[in-house]
Amino acid sequence: MDKVRIFDTTLRDGEQAPGAALDSEGKLEIARQLVRLGVDIIEAGFPVSSPEDFRSVNLIGKEIKGATICGLSRCVQKDIDAVKDALLSAERKRIHLFIATSPIHMEFKLKKSPEDVLSIAIEAIKYARQFFDDIQFSPEDASRSEPEFLYRVIEEVIKAGATTINIPDTVGYAVPEQFANLIKGILDHVPNINKAIISVHCHNDLGLAVANSLAAVKAGARQVECTINGIGERAGNAAMEEIVMALKVRKDFYQVDTNVNTKEIIRASRLVSRLTGFVVAPNKAIVGKNAFRHESGIHQDGVLKYRQTYEIMAPEDVGLDKNELVLGKHSGRHALGERLRQLGFDLSNEELEQVFVEFKKLADKKKEVFDEDLIALVESTMRMDVEKWQLVGIEVSIPMDGLPNAKVILRHGKKEFSAESEGDGPVDACYKAIDKITGYPGVLLNYNIQAITSGKDALGEASITVDFGQERVINAHGSSTDVVEASVKAYVNAINKLGVKTAEKKKGV
Ligand code: KIV
Ligand code: ZN
């Protein structure tokens, strides 16, 4: 059966999503999970865009074995040099060159003629060939390019040495039939297309990224670019879990395979959600928390009688454990370690021991310890990075006839800092006190609080979006049994992410 390569761009296009800020350590953690998942190519970043991006691509190139590591580059020498330098010690490497080929981009963005664009692309590929055997070329905004010009560009870049031709629907404008026809057109009109693999890269502006990608596979594309949970620029990219499961569940129709171990999907989804701060919608296909839940009595009855009546795939296929353990005070290290592994944490024995001590304390207070409790626990015990701000404590008073007042204590390194402030509400008072300590006042764009476990001792999760000015919009979340504390933890997380973002002012694609 034909193979479709999975090219994951969570760490590049996914990380371009407004509010997603990943540091090198987080990117490395995701890259490790992508290898477990079995993706073929990991686009690790855009090295020339910032020193932080260069460092991440370099680190992933050094550490990650078992997948091709790719760096993005415009068709200019300094970008190509940056990818070459960043991937110097990668086991398997690829460069991804792009230049726009649509009339609108060539005229208004690049201010270049089609002939100029063609020769810039050819020269860039020739230059890159000195350092790379594996060269991917993307005619940006391909779906709005003139087909005849597109065919010519593709033919010439293959002659120059491109081995993968990626067709981006950059602005999410395509619809499935038309996009499939574009792929067929390329196969029919580019004489040397058999020397390259056709890839597709679809954005989700009309909610069609996955449908367009699948239509392209049916038409002959053999690489799909996608991201975990579909994160990415604007409405995001094609969601990897949806593409992979559609190809698996409907193998009868698509007649292709991937190398993905689908049992690692949930773990990847949770890891990306936790590190980017993007909460997965409950109804999200494959990885949403309702994706395998049946509420209607008729459905429940059907599933109990014969699962396939209402389920087209088994929860275990994507890594959801049917017999998910609920941990409590009698649970041991082994059960805790196994559950944390399923939740996407890769802890050493020493780290597990540390978390186990805190777990026992929590289990004494709560009858049942849920996944969300565990995530919060690991984050507060394990990720005590001395470089970052940590919450030490809060004290809030709400007088009957005055404004709420908050005192907040934070730690940074070995030093503790405290400040007090009044506010419109207890959360506002805490945030203002934190602003006084850190000196990074932020404007709260979005604030959402929800109970994520059940019972009176339920854990509340605060999800926030904060604008720190200068295009620094950060998503973050925090959880606690106390909603004010959850909100404060979310704000402290946002400030820690801001540290990353500040050092990482991007040029953007
Ligand atoms: O959307 C796009 O066109 C891109 C290219 C760099 C492939 O992300
Ligand atoms: Zn893109």
Describe the protein's architecture and organization:
- This protein is α/β, with parallel strands linked by helices and 509 residues long.
- The chain has four domains: 2-276, TIM Barrel (Alpha-Beta Barrel), CATH 3.20.20.70; 292-320, no CATH class; 325-384, no CATH class; 388-507, Double Stranded RNA Binding Domain (2-Layer Sandwich), CATH 3.30.160.
- Helix content is 40%, strand content 20%.
- It is built from 17 helices and 16 strands.
- The strands form four sheets. Strands 2-3-4-5-6-7-8-9 form an eight-stranded parallel β-barrel, surrounded by eight helices.
- Strand 6, helix 6 and strand 7 form a beta-alpha-beta unit.
- The two termini are 36 Å apart.
- Zinc ion is lined by residues 13, 168, 170, 201, 203, 233.
What is the fold's blueprint, element by element?
Elements lengths: L1 E2 L1 E4 L15 H14 L3 E5 L5 H13 L4 E7 L2 H10 L6 E8 L2 H8 L3 H16 L5 E6 L6 H14 L3 E6 L6 H14 L7 E6 L6 H11 L3 E4 L13 H10 L1 H4 L1 E2 L7 H12 L20 H9 L27 H10 L6 H17 L5 H11 L7 E9 L7 E8 L2 E8 L3 H13 L4 E9 L8 E8 L5 E8 L2 H20 L7
Parallel strand pairs: 1-10, 2-3, 2-9, 3-4, 4-5, 5-6, 6-7, 7-8, 8-9
Antiparallel strand pairs: 11-12, 12-13, 14-15, 15-16
This protein binds 3-methyl-2-oxobutanoic acid (KIV) and zinc ion.
